[in-house]
Amino acid sequence: MQTTIETDWQAPWTDVWYERFRRRVPHRARLGRVVHENTDAGRVFQWDERFLQALWNEQRFCGALWTTDGQRLEVISPGTWNVEAGPDFRNAMLLLDGAMCTGDVEVHRSAQDWFRHGHDRDPSYGNVVLHAVWAPPSEAGRARALPPCFVLRSHLDRPWEDLLEEVRAEVYPYARRVGPGECAVRWAGTENDGVVRFFRAAGLARFSDKVRRLHREGIRRGFEQALYENLFEALGYKSNRAPFRELARATPLSDLEKLPSGPHFEACLFGSAGLLPDPTAVRVHGELAGRARRLWDLWWALGRQPLRLGWRRAGVRPLNSPERRLAAGVQLLQRWECRPARRLLEVFETADGSMDLLRRLRSELDVAGDWSAFANFARRLRKPARLLGPSRTHDILANAMLPFGAVLGRQQGRPELEHRARAAWLLLPALQENRLLVQAAHRLLSPPSRVRELVHRAAEQQGLLQVYQDFCLRLHNDCSNCPLQSGSSFEDSLSGVTVSDVEI
To answer: Which of 169, 284, 373, 499 could bridge across to 50 with cysteines, CB 3.0–4.6 Å?
Structure first.
């Protein structure tokens, strides 16, 4: 018999079942921040510094970065998160007005914390080359000796309200050693079927969380534009998520659909991205020289200015270059006539079941063209390759297309479309592994290699991450206060649960 999974979205072992346990996490641990009302300042959020450290570590910034004294900042490496005494990040590599600086970075809520915490008198902070803060220094503070100061909130890649949900400081593992928790011991003797079902329920909770966020975003920005921005963000993957999202926000669909032709469309996006070379000033591969000249002429005729997006290329494989990913995005938008949500809805409505839906969506994301042979305008690949490989396609389906299909079903009051999106999401193969997933396996499974028996699909993989984040990290690995360890209700539910006989 084929591998089986649960696809009944109303079954007790779905996100609704999982919520019973997640809601028992103490409120303070779940929130991780204090919200208060201030009649003078309005709604204000206060965080501990870990949230700001997470912003710096993830580099959730876009556009040109500047220090408060007017120096242009480029971050080559944010440094290594320091879990001992001393500055927050060690061995950062920065360019300040083009000059390389290697040293430490300290993160604070206020620039004045540098003095309040006594760092100006502490020799261990003598190698700090940048002070990253939320609140800029006052005029009086500027007169005192401070390292170059970078104001985080002035350069965020999206509104801080969204980042509060996305960059949850409490899930960061950097300051914690990962050892096996009590769940690892208790689950060691539990049948695989029961643990797998639990991970799928947690994975569906993660999926539902994303659907709710995207639905709110669609209401705020329009559903076509919201899908466009999330699709481009997914094209950027880890290194270039922020530049791709900023590009989509700065060149909205309402502007693109007014352009007269496909070449104008391509010129607008490549030129706005700052990825269109001037063929009179830089070297362009011979096979792309004519195309680059035509696009350059069209770009200047549009009268737009290139954005300062800070594309990252260090550690990015040629197959994943910003040019190739943008070429894929251009083709997709042209194919969908700048109406990605409308096309997505058509695919959902005409698909014959969840497997057919996945096949159709993979086909929608299959793009080739001239760029298959190039990494950028100057470099030809040794061997042509698809612009979007299977792993990137599945990541886009998991994080953009399928959740947004559920959003459209919710918006139109059609639960069958939301059900179809969830069922198809359960069928996705596992996505690329990351460090957080490895740590989750070490914390929750004994031996950690058991992950190979339990995690075969994205739903189980995402569920393992969600359990680790919701319980282990939010409770600082305090098993004594974990809802999963209190009473016998969870243990009784987990034991004897078998995978349903719904065939993939």
So the answer is: 169
Specify whether the CB–CB gap between 444 and 187 falls below 8 A.
yes
Question: How far is CA 324 from each of CA 137, 226, 376, 430, rounded to the nearest angstrom?
Answer: 41, 22, 7, 24
Alpha helices in 145-258 (DSSP H): 160-166, 182-187, 192-221, 223-236, 241-250, 253-256
163 within some domain: no
Q: Return left, alpha or beta for 237; rule: phi > 0 is left, psi -120 to 50 is alpha, else beta.
A: left
- CA distance linking residue 201 with residue 20, whole number of Å: 11
Peptide bond before residue 447 is cis, with ω within 30 degrees of 0 = yes
Q: In angstroms, what is the C-alpha Rg of the chain? A: 24
- Same domain, residue pair 266 and 411: yes
| Token couple for 408 | 């459209």
Residues 283 and 409 in one domain: yes
Whole-prediction pTM value? 0.73
Residues 344, 288 within the same domain: yes
Same domain, 214 and 283: no
Q: What is the DSSP letter of 430?
A: P
Could you tell me if 254 and 371 lie in one domain? yes
Phi, psi of 86 (to 5 degrees): 115, -170
The answer on 265 and 181 residing in a single domain is: no
Distance CA 63, CA 165 (A): 22
Residue 148's contacts (CB-CB under 8 Å, 6 or more residues apart) are: 67, 68, 69, 71, 73, 96, 129, 130, 131
- Asked if the structure places residue 190 within a domain, the reply is yes
**CB within 8 A of 428, min separation 6: which ones?**
358, 394, 397, 398, 402, 457, 458, 459
What is the domain extent for residue 174? 1-31+168-221+429-504
Q: How many domains does the chain have?
A: 3
Neighbours of 291 (CB within 10 A): 16
Q: Please write the tens of the pLDDT for every residue from 22-44.
A: 877 765 454 444 333 232 333 44
Q: Using the 8-state DSSP alphabet, how is residue 156 labeled?
A: B
- Span 62-113, pLDDT tens digits: 888 999 989 999 988 888 778 677 898 888 889 999 889 899 999 998 888 8
Please tell me whether residues 445 and 318 are part of one structural domain: no
